[in-house]
Amino acid sequence: MNFHTRKWVKPEDLNPNGTLFGGSLLKWIDEEAAIYAIIQLGSQRVVTKLISEINFVSSARQGDIIELGITATEFGRTSITLRCEVRNKITRKSILTIDRMVFVNLGEDGQPAPHGKTEITYIKDQFKD
């Protein structure tokens, strides 16, 4: 799993306990996962269908730098399934894991549409002549 996205935990991201608010983290994850799905499927009409159990295994505090790792685990006819892990950039300690996030490709009519993808592609391979 590649960890490309990094976030700096700032005061506005904290809960009353002084740790990273789970809602802020889930917003970041959903946005990054959607971007990943859009790039993999080559379509901007991608929506979140399902997020499985979310396992918070530790917390982050103000000033921590966290990184998000996302990878595709399965390609369906109209969907893509992703796995996500968030960890502390410095200590590498896991903060959260999500085993399944499903995104669905939509057609012009707003209904699920085949995307034609079957495996992970990388940016360097997507723009070859």
From TrEMBL:
GO terms for cellular component: cytosol. Pfam families: 4HBT. SUPFAM superfamilies: Thioesterase/thiol ester dehydrase-isomerase (SSF54637). Keywords: Hydrolase. The keyword Cytoplasm does not apply. One of its GO terms (biological process) is acyl-CoA metabolic process. Residues 1-109 form the HotDog ACOT-type domain. InterPro entries: Cytosol_ACT, HOTDOG_ACOT, HotDog_dom_sf, Thioestr_dom. One of its GO terms (molecular function) is long-chain fatty acyl-CoA hydrolase activity. Belongs to the acyl coenzyme A hydrolase family. PANTHER family: ACYL COENZYME A THIOESTER HYDROLASE, HOTDOG ACOT-TYPE DOMAIN-CONTAINING PROTEIN. This is Thioesterase superfamily protein.
